[in-house]
Amino acid sequence: MRFQALWKQEFEKLEQWRVLMRELRAVLPQFEIGHATATSTSCFRCTVFTNRQPVEASHEDGPRERRWGVVGCLSILAPVYTVYGLQYDYTGQDVIAAKVFFDPLPPEMQALAEVVGRKIEAMFGAEALPRELAETRIPLIVEFLEPPATTLFHALFSTDPENVAV
């Protein structure tokens, strides 16, 4: 009940989050900007992704495509944010592989992550949660994760970081 009440209170920031996404579209027109907030997680989320690009595949796999990008997350539980990377491989419409990247991000994701992070800091006054702190184990059940698997990242952001609608 408290979590739902907190989301109800935090929804006041939704319009400001939409402004953030409009500003990202203006400065990153070559990327697809998406709204990936889900009230089952404890953060606002946006995605910044490339279009699908062909990748080499073995003959039996058929044609494959890849897209990559970053996810910006603003916690509703604390004034912190994180930006992490994602890569999806597709065969047709099916995602056949998803890979999450944390610090250090691959070189092609670093500048993009910096733009998203600076925008979140400027608009919301949040601070980046250092990766070492995000990996701290916590004695809480978060969604379907139980200790010792749960971390501060799971509690403040998401237990399923690769699951964003792209």
From TrEMBL:
Protein name (database record): Uncharacterized protein
Organism: Archangium gephyra
Lineage, highest ranks first: Bacteria, Pseudomonadati, Myxococcota, Myxococcia, Myxococcales
